[in-house]
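This section describes the prediction task in plain terms. A model, or a person checking by hand, is given the sequence of a single protein chain and must write out its three-dimensional structure as a string of tokens. No templates, partner chains or ligands are provided. The sample shown here is typical of the held-out split.
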Amino acid sequence: MMKKVFSAFCAAVLAFGASALPFGEIADTVIVASASFEYEGFVCEELVSGEVRIEGYTGDGIAITVPSEINGKKVKEIASGAFKDNGDITSLYVEGGVTILPQAFSGCVGLESVVIGEGCDVWGSAFENCTSLKSVAVMKDTTIGMFAFEGCDNVQKFFCYKDSPADNYWFSNGLAPTYFDDGDIDFEGVYDVFEFKAMDGWSLLDESGEQIVVCITKYVGGDTHLNVVVPETIMGFPVYRIDEFAFFDCNSIQSVKLPETVKVIDAAAFMKCSSLKNISIENVEDIGAQAFDSTAIGKAVLNEKLEGIAAAAFFDCGLTEITLPKDITVIGFDAFAANPIDKIAIPDKVWYIATRAFYNTKIRDVTIPASVTEIEETAFGYGTVDLYDEEGNYTGWEEVKYDDMIIRGYDGTAAEKYAKDNGFEFVSLGPVKKKGDLNGNGKIDASDLLQVKSHIKKVKLLEGDDFKAADVDDNGAINAADLLKMKAHMKGVTLIWE
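The expected answer:
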């Protein structure tokens, strides 16, 4: 009789756990709790050992992160039935080192994605009959017990590391694992107040190659967080991108701190975050259209690697001060429209300024470099005024031209044409300097050579149009090669221009 009881016990262990566990560990899971409390919707029991067991969940969150620590105490395990039959949860992330006991998430029919951190222990039947589950990702050193995902017949992707303990798990639908090691990554999950997707870095413009990186796809923190901190890593992978519409219309958020790892902010990512005043974007190298449309950021420090300002990227965001990166080439439609900025410096590499780029701003005096070859209509010097009837009722608006607009530029350039076409005052900066002709006298002479030599020796550095004129070969640097070409031109050997 005793032999039969022992055999039944062993069978149960094999069904529910990854391997047979010592009696001491099993006893520890049922030890009498010393105190109970609630933490952010989690119903918790503090064990005599000082660790915490999660017994249930009373919150209304749909994207759940089970923390590895609560109030500074390690979360040991998620009890059997803790989340059983919760139909509201759609995504789950369990942080590292947590044991998930049998039927902890059984019958969670709304659950679509599960990410399990490093060093967890998932017991048999933990996720049984989660019929909507499509994606499961398991980190290193995590074990999965037999039948842990029994009845989850709609799982389409299972991610793990090759030859890890989880690599041995077998899904009833015969699903083969996708290995992190191979870089073929495309899954979704949740961490804290963020939904995310992880993909190979190449598809997310990561210059380092096939590194796995994370994209924040949606903020799900509601109105409970005024100051949001985006983590540097999720599951150990760098957070690289903020997806389009990720924070759209989150009008309670006042600040967002981005880590240095975030290089891309997609279209409309923070659009209509009307209370957003502070955000750290100095490390971001790609900003999409309408990214900060209708926010309240007021001031922005931009990364020097930005090559263009997308359409309406900073439309109506209370911008009072902005410095454009020196390497940008394009300023898009409505890029800085409807802002109270009163001055702007257009960098020397810009060649295109789109329609309404600075529409409805306070800018009345702008210098446009010779590099700009195309300025679209109403880019500068236009805006709107509100109309009211005799009783003070708003009746609409109309477009107006600012007659006090001053355009400064070089003779014969797009700046002069735009000023004359629109009836604005044009202030000439003289003729466009030819390559090598730094003093603007129409030829290359000893005076020009002296200035180039002085720059090379770092005695007096050239800037702006002088730098561009001295950079004869247009490689972004002034060196001996430019000097030699200027000398060859002076001798008539090889002409830079006729």
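For orientation: The chain has a mean pLDDT of 88.
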